Amino acid sequence: MNANEKKAVVDCVLETNANRIPVVLGLGGNNTQEILEKIRQFDFEGISAMLSVSPYYNKPSQKGIIQHYKVIAEEAPVPVIIYNVPGRTGSNILAETTLEIAGSQTNIIGVKEASGNIEQIMSIIRQRSNGF
User: Is 99 among the domain residues?
Assistant: First the structure.
């Protein structure tokens, strides 16, 4: 979808939802600066949180992933949910990386963990901080 189509879908969802349940906006990509610009331009009224996929295609290092989420969390006006889907992005956010991001950024509230690695998922659950 282009930007206008995405806005129309979000507007329709918000209108239909009428604040009955939280709405999570998907906003991600492989260009961190482009995501920051989208955040700055988007009207987050009615949005409860933002789901942001790990950068895809360019396969960042774990340190790169940490920096990516750090700047997104600092810019986002709503809480951020990490989205780890290595089957689509080509890289995995390790449990240690997820926990480091969550521990250092108060605006990161959760993870949609789609690695399929049960040990990794259980490690995050066992070691997560309160509120994550």
Answer: yes
CATH number at residue 7: 3.20.20.70
pTM: 0.94
Can 56 be counted among the known catalytic residues? no
Structural contact between residues 97 and 62, judged by C-beta atoms closer than 8 angstroms: yes
Q: Six-digit token pair at 11?
A: 């507007």
- The answer to whether residues 36 and 71 touch, using CB atoms and an 8 Å cutoff, is yes
- Supply the pLDDT for residue 121: 97
Cα separation, 91 vs 124, whole angstroms: 17
Q: Which of 6, 7, 70, 112 is catalytic?
A: 112
Is residue 92 within 8 A of residue 60, CB to CB? The reply is no
Active site residue 112: yes
Identify the domain containing residue 62 by its residue range: 3-127
